[in-house]
Amino acid sequence: MNIILLGAGRIGEVISVYLNNRFDLTIVDSSQNNLKKLENYGKPKKCRINNKNNITELIKNYDLVIGCLPGKLGLKTMKACMENQIDLIDLSFMPEDSLSLDEEAKKNNITIIPDAGFAPGLSNLFAGRLYQKFDEIDEIGIRVGGLPIKKKSPLYYKITWSPHDLISEYIRNARLIKNNEIIEIDPLEIINKVRIKNNDFEEFFSDGLRTLLSTLDISNLWETTLRWEGHLNKIKILRDLNFFNKENLQNTLKIISPLMDYESKDFSIMEVIGYGKINNKKREIKYYLYDEEKNGLSSMSRVTGFTAGIIVETFIKYSDEFENGVIPPEIIGKNKNLHDEIVDKLKQKDIHIEYIL
């Protein structure tokens, strides 16, 4: 299998190490430093990727593309793969609706697996499996967080990704399904406290359901993001006072970003809960995941990169079980054998996953 990996940042690094020379892998990135770290895991190729023609030329002689590019290049990557009739496993988390490309992908006889990360990604896989477990399912809820182990005042959060993307979570309406209708709500309108495994968090509704809004026929579906207590009310005050408005945001980030930049290992936590009936009895079934930074790899890189690498491996091994078209992770989760293999391999990477009846 001749594979090309587009993007060798933190997630691309974990994918490359996981695949560990079991396939003919070419690793593309604009950073020589990133490529140098991975030269033992694939053939490095230095290139700045910035448009569809660029991507089309890069991928044309490969069997499979792994996309780890920024969201603004996600759609361009999908279009280039369809033009070349090459399968794609993507982690760009592009803003466009990947399912809108389903018919075009089928016409070109390719499979596109979008959002093949942690959340969205593994959260979708768990939701798809829960959907299959119930005779009647009323509700699925997802709680997810990536947090510093050390809580530091005043904001109790450590930035490990784009500050602009962090702020967008607090100003972009969250979509969820309530009583069979897709609705939008202010993400900070409702701030709840929640206790998970002896830890107290606060949560807000976040816009991470993406393909799940279309693929699961369910009355109620929601996602919340977890923060340490004391973070969200301060963020809400800043937002309501217009500190996150376009004209003020840069100055705001200059002040608050240093307050969220400190030494601490991170951890990832997730609950995916299903409510419904089995044999006419009301039941609750839950997934619980926990992971911490290990061996110099942040937890968020681990849970995202290992999930993606395992999906790549599973797709290659069981290619006959994947139809053409856009196949988000919740569709994979509906297949018990594929789901079980992915979960078992994540556990082998020392990621703690419980299935609680």
From TrEMBL:
It comes from the Bacteria. GO terms for molecular function: oxidoreductase activity. Keywords: Oxidoreductase. The keyword Oxidoreductase applies. The keyword Metal-binding does not apply. Residues 117-349 form the Saccharopine dehydrogenase-like C-terminal domain. Residues 3-113 form the Saccharopine dehydrogenase NADP binding domain. InterPro entries: AASS, NAD(P)-bd_dom_sf, Sacchrp_dh-like_C, Sacchrp_dh_NADP-bd. This is Saccharopine dehydrogenase family protein. The lineage of its organism: Bacteria, Candidatus Macinerneyibacteriota, Candidatus Mcinerneyibacteria, Candidatus Mcinerneyibacteriales, Candidatus Mcinerneyibacteriaceae.
